[in-house]
Design brief:
Layout: E1 5-12, E2 15-22, E3 25-31, H1 43-56, H2 73-83, E4 91-92, H3 93-100, H4 104-112, E5 125-126, H5 140-152
Parallel strand pairs: 4-5
Antiparallel strand pairs: 1-2, 2-3
Helix pairs in contact: 2-3, 2-4, 3-4
């Protein structure tokens, strides 16, 4: 196990993405902010940077990185539910709640406290009311950009969104 704490900063089209790792797990990802790279650039940090860069290059649709665990079974279930939403697709808070045996409010809270935006794609969870929320980056503007970006990078036969 690596003992180093590391912070990396990746410049992306939605602004800087800050990646934090301790040992052999990522402990957080933040969209926006002013943190500078520090600590050892561990193999995990290097791989996280590679995957984030590949995502924004349109070459990666699923992340495969070790993440710090959650303390509750409900949290783990909701995280897995959010992570299961395919690239370029969306689910409503209510639909995801039904799939995970939870309630929409709990899904919203899991999205709000998600320590790994992009990697655990909470931007793919949407509201039925039309009003969108997103606690990362520039909020709904970042969420909209990510959804449009993914949709634009889907093969044409998978694009089903009505305009």
């Amino acid at each position: 196990m690596q003992d180093a704490n590391a912070i990396a900063r990746v410049e992306t089209p939605i602004g800087p993405v800050i990646v934090r790792a301790t040992g052999d797990v990522l402990t957080g990802v933040r969209i926006g902010g002013s943190a500078q790279a520090s600590g050892a650039q561990t193999p995990l940090i290097i791989e996280a940077i590679r995957q984030i860069t590949a995502y924004f290059d349109g070459q990666l649709t699923d992340f495969n990185l070790p993440l710090q665990g959650l303390d509750t079974e409900e949290g783990r279930t909701l995280r897995a539910g959010i992570a299961s939403i395919p690239y370029g697709q969306t689910l409503t808070y209510g639909a995801l709640a039904s799939q995970t045996g939870s309630v929409a409010r709990a899904v919203g809270q899991a999205c709000k406290t998600n320590a790994f935006p992009l990697i655990i794609p909470c931007h793919r969870v949407i509201s039925t009311s039309g009003r969108e929320y997103y606690s990362a980056g520039d909020g709904p503007r970042t969420k909209s950009w990510l959804l449009d970006f993914e949709y634009d990078h889907l093969p044409a036969e998978q694009r089903t969104r009505l305009i």
